[in-house]
Structure prediction request, 529 residues.
Amino acid sequence: MNTRAALALSVCAALLAVPVVGAAQYPQHLTSTDTGVSASALAGPASADEYGLYPPPSTNWLSTTSSGSMNQLAIEMEVVAGSSTSFKVTCEEKSLSGADGMWIQKCIAGASMTDCHVDEHWYDLSGVQATGTLTFLAAASVAEDDEFTLGDGTNEAVTFVISKGTSAATWSTTNVELDVSYVTSAIEVADHFRNIMAGSVYASGTITALAKASMTEGDYFTISDGVTAHTYTFSTGTLSHTPSATSHVVDISSDTTAINVADRVRLAVAGVKATGQLTALAKASMTEGDYFDLNDGVSTIRFTFSTGTLSHTETATAREIDISGVSTANDVSDVIRAAITSSASHIVPDTDGVAQIDLECDYVGYLCNETITENLDSGTLSPSGMSGGTGVTTTNITTDAAGAAEIVFTGPATFAANVDIVESMDSGTLTPNGMTYGTPALSLDLTADAAGTAQVDLTNNLRGPQGNVTIVEDLDSGTLTPVGMSGGTGGETHFVLNLPVGYPWIRCHFEDVNDGTGTITVTGVKSRY
Prediction:
């Protein structure tokens, strides 16, 4: 069969006079409701594009001949057409032989057509899509809770409600917030509406960082993803702040400019891994039984040095560092690295091979901020950290790239994520803006035109009169000058294919026959005599 376009869906309605071997299951578009056949009488497909029914049911079907062939097969189709103007149904019949009742010849393009009958049927889906327009007003010209409603004739209508920050409405995918709090012109309002129509819109917001000199110890801001609020507290180095799962420290003690501070916030939101340090000593400076403890926030592991005098039993939380065969501090550091690496600790050493060992937790967050402790008979490993870990891996808030004082936050595409950023500053302001615009994808088969004008042109995605649904507005004053939706014609979606059947097997393929840009979806098929 010549498939000039990608096969959008293949359906086979097959009837057998003898059972088919294989597990019973529902074919893709045939159900017991459609056919009056119980689940146990539905055959599993032989391949991805073949589906079958067996045996011919005793009710809801005409009698078959003694040879098992049938008189007439009617296939009812409900079709959803995209940009296609026509589609083709190719039905193939095939006689059977063999006890398993499988195909002798599959009647596919290029194969021998011996004992095989192929019948093609073309269907016209041409028609006109309904269209309409809305001409948006500037934000100052609309009122809180002004609204308009759009319908596509197929899905539930959607009401868009103007919001300026004080609406008490409850948002849903059929009662959608159109927030104009942070836009001004009619074009900006229109383009925000276009974004919502295009699909999911992620919540967004901004703050603008100040230089360190304008910040005070303990200044903070709080941002929410709609599920959990997270507070970010600025530290200039004067006080110590204890982080938690929802309280994070932004250490700006070594920063100067507003961009430095902003980039530090970005790191805190993304999450920072805790770091630490140890400096190994030469073997001659170590004593049998010296040890240090690493706590990664999950478990504490003790690392005990052995110079060869005693034997130490190892467990998951007690590891031996055997330095009996080394001498220099660098050599000892490599043995320490190997011991940490082979343990279950989430703390990872560097691989530099020098006496100073840099440590880093392998996950972001505050949990790894646990002090390294040591117990040496003499001398010290100069432990530092673990510290500096901040952020959480579960937050749904991200930031833009480094390099600007203004920080752009992005949150989930949910109404719940539209929560104001709150600040507490001793002086000055971070100029919080948002979070706003979070909107999930809508079930509305309408497409808006490209951005850039106050007038938005709308087109129904399907052809046919079902899209002729009047746009309704309810504005306190002024008008969006709604036009349409109207002009939809044609686009028939219900077809009945009557087939004379001379063989016990029949299968039908449905395909788009446009230039490949259209789609055909058969949403329901009924087979009957």
In short: The longest strand covers residues 72-81.
